[in-house]
Structure formats: C-alpha cells, structure tokens
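User: Hi! Is it possible to get a structure for several chains at once, not just one? Here's what I have:
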Amino acid sequence: MRRIVIWLASTVTILVLIFGYHTSTNRTASVGVPSATAPVTPGGATSGAPSGAPSGGASSPSGASPTPSATSSGSAASKSYTGAEAQTQWGIVQVRITVTAGKITAVDVPEYPNENPRDAQINAYALPTLVQETLTAQNAEIDMVSGATVTSGGYLQSLQSALDQAGLS
Amino acid sequence: MITTVGRVVEHPVRRRVEQLMGMPVSLAVRGPGADDPAVETAWQAVLAELRWVDATFSTYRDDSAVSRINRGELTTAQAPPELREVLELAEAARRDTAGAFDVRYRRAVGDDRLDPSGVVKGWAIERAARHLAALEDVDHCLSGGGDLVCSAAPGRPVWRIGIEDPRRPSVLVATVPVRRGAVATSGAAHRGAHVLDARTGRPPVGVASVTVVADSLTAADVDATAAWAQGWQAASWLRGRPGRTGLVVWQDGTRTLIGAEPAA
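Assistant: Yes, the chains can be modeled jointly so their relative placement is included. Here is the combined structure:
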C-alpha cells in the first residue's frame, strides 16, 4: 500500500530505541518490578525493517544506542547522550537525547538528511518490547492501548479507558 | 545535504472517545494544530463514516446490506462497492491462511452465511482515519476497540502503544513505538471466544492473543485474526508474512516476538 522508505525507518528506529530503552529503564526503577521489565532484544535496532525488505543503503543503527552503563539513575543532573552517526542513502543521521533525573527531557536531531516531502510518507515501526507491568493513568508512558477486541462492555476494565479519562478530564 | 532540525517539542495529547459499532472508538491527537476546530470537524467525519459502515456491514442490524445478503434479498453485485472491496480482502485472507480465516460460515447444509466483521473493523478504522491524515500539524492515533492506526510527523514524538495482557487487561505485556503504521490485536479477552478456526469449526487452541504491527490496519487486523484462528501455528504463520512485526501471547502466559532475528 504505502511504500516503506528504509532511510527514515532506520532514522526513527534510532530515536525509538533510545526512547524505548530509557522508558523501560525508568519503569524498572519507578515501578519497582525487579527483573520483569526485560527488553528481549535491547540491541535489536534493525528489527523494524521487515526481513524481506530491501536493506540497501540503510546502515545498522545499533551503534546509536547509548551504552546502558551511561545511565545514572537517581541523579538530578542532566546528561546528554549522542548516538553514533548512521550513514543512510540520503545522508547522515544522528540523534542526541538529554536525560534529567532518569527521564528524557529533550531529543535533538543534530544531523538529519534533507527532507523530501514525498519521503515523509513513511512507515516506521519497531519490534515490540516485552514488559510486565500494571499500568495506571498516572504512570502511563504510553499513548494508546492495543487489546483483544475491546468491546463497550469490556471497555471499563480496559487500559484505554484510563487513558481516555486522563485526557478528557 | 545535511541540515539541522530543532528540538523535538512535546505537545499535550488531546483525546476523544465515542461508543460505536459496539466498541469504543478513541482518538488521540497532538501537535501544533491539535486544538484547532478542524480536528473536531474531522472527528465528526470519522464518526459519520463509521456509522455508515455499521449500517452497511453489521450482522446485528436487520436492514444492513450484509443481513439482506444473508436473507437472499440482495446480491453482492447489487451491494455497495465497499462491500465487494471487503469481500475481496476476506477472500485474500482465506487463501493466505489455507482456509483458517473465512468470513463465510455454514449454519446448515445449504445455509451459508456471511459475517465479514473480522475484516471490516480494521478496514473501516483505517479508511476513516484519512479525515485525520488531512489535518495540518496534527499527529493522530485512531483506535477502534483496541485496533489502531497512528501517524506522527517526522521530528515529532512517536506514538507509544501498549499491548495489554489478554488474561489481565490492567497489565501490559509489551510496548511498541509507532510513527506511521498500525497495531491490531486479536484474542479471546473481553468477549470470549468469538473466532473459530474455519477448518475445524472450533476455537483456536494454545494462543491467548496475537498482536500485529504493519503498514496498514486492514492488513494488521486480518493477520492478527488469521494468526489467532490458527492456534499453535499462530507464530510460525505470522513469521512468514512480509513486513510485519508482532507478539503472540500463549495461554500459559509465555510470549513470542515476531520480527526478531531468528534464534540461532
């Protein structure tokens, strides 16, 4: 249907992995679930690209992930992490994040290829990251919930209702 | 060639929800234009379109085109073109699953019925979302009963999607970031077993839910349902589908990621 454009997919995967990594780290710390939060493939940066898709030109962004040891939990000071440059067919992509008190407070893209409006029609999604956590609207670091055939009857017990209420009130 | 773009600005998420087609339809929007009146206009267009889909495809409404076909009062040739489009999608899914997914079922010998609900939901949500895609400076995520389609402009935050535990709806089993794409989950949660393996006429065995991430919600929804209908084969079948990632939650609570590098 829509053409998958690999270069932006890889760009976004970099962003997304950094987000995903820190999000799960934060949750582990704040929710206090000992070892249940386990990203199965923390370095699986290329997984957003379908295995059958052409991969020419898209470099592996795995080098862009900050090293886990760089995360200092509990510190109120801001720290920046700059990802490795990722060479794509359209140019170099690089991402920098700022973490304050264990939360991402800024995401900068210091280097970014020129944007072709047509290529803005991208699809970029990644591999799900396994978690195991009870969610409330208060600690929600997610925007929407996908669940098995949520019906109006089951809606009240679904996570989406909590999110909707948080946004509507 | 290289330009510098600014800081990613976090905009608050604005939400709307409406009960339609027996399910909650939820919209989340954000971005510089999220508070514009045009968002409400687009939302009303989404709802109007989904009401039309319900009136046309529902098996619970006696006057729907599907019900009239099932009573022999209407032929597919006389039905709205959208119905033929949905039937073609259903036929492709039937072929791709070797018959496990089938929108036609036999009530008795000589009494074949049509129930395209397994295809309609994802197709309808994706189609209705085009009203939101036309909005300027607005990122959107539209969900129909837990199947959703998202779009976020480059340089803005991705949508973070939680996948709920089919056995405990207050628990997440996974999260997945989506910039532009769709997430659909099929399973027995909330409604009880409502999908049968068309080959055996029985509910699928072993699998609790299947989540599929794909370009299109039509494809994600059909594949999630088709994989789920195949029980123990859900994960192996899904691995053979191009351009998908996903998650299978088994009835014992173990989880299989689809799209990861194959284990050595």
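Confidence is low (pLDDT under 50) at residues 1-8 of chain B. The two ends of chain B are 40 Å apart (CA to CA).

User: Great, thank you!
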